[in-house]
Amino acid sequence: MAAAVEIDNVSKTFKLYHERGTSLKERLVKARQSRYDELKALQGISFDVEEGETIGILGRNGSGKSTLLKCICGVLQPTSGEIRVRGKLAGLLELGAGFQPELSGRDNIYLNGSMLGLTRKEIDAVFDDIVGFAELESFIDNQVKFYSSGMYVRLGFAVAVNVDPDVLVIDEVLAVGDEKFQRKCIARIKQFQEMGRTIIFVSHSADQVRTICDRAVVLQTGEMIGMGTPGSAVRLFRERLLESDGAPPAEDTAPSVDQTQKEEKFQLRVREVFTSVSELEDPVLESGDPFSVTAVFRVKEKIDSMVFVLEIHGAKGELLLRTDTDQLGLSTEAPMGEGRITFDFPSWPLNDGRYDISIGAQNRLGDVTFDWRENVASLEVIYHGRAAGLLNLPLSASLTAGGPIVRKVL
Ligand SMILES: Nc1ncnc2c1ncn2[C@@H]1O[C@H](COP(=O)(O)OP(=O)(O)O)[C@@H](O)[C@H]1O
Ligand SMILES: [Mg+2]
Question: Which CATH number applies to 265-382: 2.70.50.60, 3.90.600.10, 3.30.565.10, 3.40.1400.10?
């Protein structure tokens, strides 16, 4: 397979100029300082994106994701290094990038299309598809400066996917649209994958990266700290996220003196996670049997809004369940000191396979993570029944002679 995009030792440095001093004294002092600071937004990034591959890019705010995408799209010039793209590339960059606010939606479609190398005729041919996909029929002749952020994203995505690119680049913008439009975009992205197109995809959603991407890259303050399967990249990303928030990743072993000291600094830490089968010599669960998972935690500082989150992923990394203690009717106030939280399944509902369990503590909105233990436990399940498929639901059937058919599901 040939590489569709080669990113070769790319660095991007922004110069942040100081304000000039106004008084003579200020100027004299500042004359000795440099006139600008350098911000290394990207440092020595190298990776290839194979043709037909979907690559995810994960990283916290400011880690350089958008800068990298802009370099790939040619909107920004790298300070050093090289990027080679084979085929036609269309990008959906940060909100509003690539649109002229004074022009109408209609004119912007023609402008964008021509920038992507389409003739007027070619744009005419896809114009209705673009407007239809964006659901902007009644607004297409309004100036885009009056568009909402959701409308911007819809138009941007509709143009990008309808100009038939070989490489599609999407920044974190999908989160802006409503859920219905997001689903439509994901469906279109999947169509692109089936057509063998190449996609580079920045998302804030670990689950989107898991379900859509073949591989993922993790950026941290401009450096690429890892590249691998979506599962391993998400894990690395979440661990680093915690480290830079001041909480070290939790350890399975007893904390060393050093870690005990670090522990002073954070509000809540998950210290240990075990399941109802983890102590068994042969830790295999029979499908349909009761199962529980328990996390031992320690709360150092009062937290007002806090939920414990349980996630279960399947062997391919797909999310099977995410729930939290708020949804399960527990208080969102964390008890101080040591505690344990147990999630109980009266009957494990999934058949043969391996399942990964993650547990964390977040605020109710899910935008603050106090601690997260990704894939901290796994579960091997065997199923002795005869039904095929993944689910083992409590189910029975009844058969009655004559009369209307009675269906009974327990
Ligand atoms: N045009 C610019 N001028 C100066 N600094 C910039 C510019 N664009 C981005 N940066 C800085 O570069 C870093 C990376 O930004 P960005 O690529 O937008 O990160 P991300 O998309 O991961 O949130 C940030 O520190 C940001 O402030
Ligand atoms: Mg960004």
Answer: 2.70.50.60
